[in-house]
Known about the structure:
By secondary structure, this protein is mainly alpha-helical.
Amino acid sequence: MADAGGGSDKRVWCSVPEKFQLHGAMLALQFGYAGFHVVSRFALNMGISKLVFPVYRNIIALLLLLPFAYFLEKKDRPAITLNFLVQFFFLALIGITANQGFYLLGLDNTSPTFASAIQNSVPAITFLMAALLRIEQVRLNRKDGVAKVVGTIFCVAGASVITLYKGPAIYSPTPPLQMMMMSSASSSFIIIAAIFERDSQAWIFHNGGEVFSILYAGVVASGIAFAVQIWCIDRGGPVFVAVYQPVQTLVVAIMASVALGEEFYLGGIIGAVLIIVGLYLVLWGKSEERKFAQASLRVPIQSTPSDNVHSNNRKSQTKTSLTQPLIPPSTENV
Length: 334
């Protein structure tokens, strides 16, 4: 009976269109990261070491992901070469060690809302890099291209309003009833922490809040979030993932008001509206881009018999130029 129920749940999930799976996964991801910002602020308020924090976080994430990576992908993963090792090293150094280290340093001197809002430069930078590297096609002479550009600008503008403009307070919460925290870990941080963090007390858990922080950071913010994010990038592309970043700022602003006692201002409402409009424009633009590509593939092309002969000879060697760089043609992602 249990197997039948499990199979039924699996069939129901598989029957959901992939584009809805992607949107649902990205929304859940933003809530997970938003909680991470708030929990991290609690942890820093309680005096947790900014070096020990990411060490425990990444150790837990490693222990969580390692079994899945080994058993589920051992037949698919490429051979480990020097080139891969170099890429992984710089990815870990910049994307994990430097990213998490500077994030905690900035969060310690600002607020969760500001830390989340400043990350909303990611969609604009990702969109620009993807366009320059020809991963994302931008056609300003078409409505889908204009929508993606304008939508990205709206998302960044909305996050900027939340950060820079307060306005009158809409909601003034009471102080939070309890504290939450988070911590994490990475091999690079182990070395750095071992050198600079000599206080043995900094490595000891002092209360249940610290344990919760470490588990949340390692399991949710690093383990589950990284896996979901990689899947969404693979199926929807980097711009699709990056454009959801501003949603995180809105969620953090609300969570920080409830959990940390931060006031929620009119600027947050205005910024939220801009973010929602921008997100809709980008997603609508990507949907229109897919429709344009599918319509172009269905257009019959007039050709002469000699052209058909040459075309058949090259058919197995030449790929169509009408490719969607962020969306696999066989799937309906956004």
